[in-house]
Amino acid sequence: MSGQLAEVAARLDSTRQLGSVISAMRAIAASRSQQARRELEAIRLYAATIGQAIGQVLGSLPSGQPVAAPATTGDGVLVVALCAEQGFAGSFNERVLDVALPLADKANSRLFIVGDRGLMVAGNRGRTPDWSVPMAAHTDEVSALADRISGAVYAALAPRGPGRVLLVHGSPGEGEDQAIVRRWLLPFDFGRFPAHLADGQAPLMNLPPMALLEQLAVEYVHADLCEALMLSYAAENQARMQAMIAAHGNLERTEASLTLQFQRVRQEDITDEILELSAART
């Protein structure tokens, strides 16, 4: 085998090995995205259950008693950008930060970034967040991560801090469509929950209604965070799957080109050998 033929053969073998790696990454990303979508149902059921409890407590209050969200002193916004933890996710992080960074530029506003890849992209743009944390690498890490984020958020809402909290995250769509979602996390809006009584009877409560509402609101915020994190996780892996599909298509074209080159060089080597043998006999 000539040197040129050996070189082409080595490149072709390397391309095929890389194709196997890309196929495996695509399969893993697709599996993780589907798993996250399935677990969203449980999170939403949990949030709905808390919402029903809030509505029942509201229905037990004396008629006309107002329930307001906790007062905030700041007028800025705390923007929490949910980005990717791992690479090969296409433009996912750029799209999230394209929305989040301008919002965090307002007066008295702050920026939190979830996901090391998003942190790196923000650094490339000359932005350093006020706080950051790695994104969940698996769905079973979402709840603990939501606790860490909520703790940092409540600490940031100290006097003279931002008065509102906005989540910016990806959401998976059909096919290649992905949306970048903006959703308010705080202040908590009790008006979203219609006041009602189950079977017309007031619920049994072991806490004063206002204290119970406060705890239920904290639980609902946790559920909101879990849902946003799970949607972001699903969108990140969907973006990675699409990036691997594109990479696999490019690799297939490269492999086809190298195969043709290998066949051509091999044919040239065979022709040269035949000519040498013919010349030796004469």
Q: What are the low-pLDDT stretches, counting only 5+ consecutive residues below 50?
A: none
Number of strands: 5
**Total count of helical runs of at least 4 residues:** 5
Strand order of the largest sheet: 3-2-1-4-5
The helical percent reads 55-70%
Structural class: alpha/beta
- Identify the overall geometry: elongated
Gap between N and C termini: 25 Å
The overall pLDDT, averaged over residues, is 84
Question: What's the story with the biggest beta sheet?
Answer: 5 strands, mixed
Computed CA radius of gyration, to the nearest angstrom:
28 Å
The fraction of residues assigned to DSSP E strands is 5-15%
Write up what this structure looks like.
With 282 residues, the chain is α/β, with parallel strands linked by helices. The protein is built from five helices and five strands, in the order αβαβαβαββα. The chain has helices spanning 3-60, 92-104, 116-124, 142-156, 209-281; strands at 77-82, 110-114, 131-133, 164-172, 178-186. The longest helix is centred in the last third of the chain and has 73 residues, at 209-281. The chain is elongated and about 110 Å long. The two termini are 25 Å apart.
Key traits:
282 residues; 5-stranded mixed sheet; 5 helices; 5 strands
Brief synopsis:
60% of the residues lie in helices and 11% in strands.
Q: Helix and strand layout, with pairings?
A:
Blueprint: H1 3-60, E1 77-82, H2 92-104, E2 110-114, H3 116-124, E3 131-133, H4 142-156, E4 164-172, E5 178-186, H5 209-281
Parallel strand pairs: 1-2, 1-4, 2-3
Antiparallel strand pairs: 4-5
Helix pairs in contact: 1-5, 2-3, 4-5
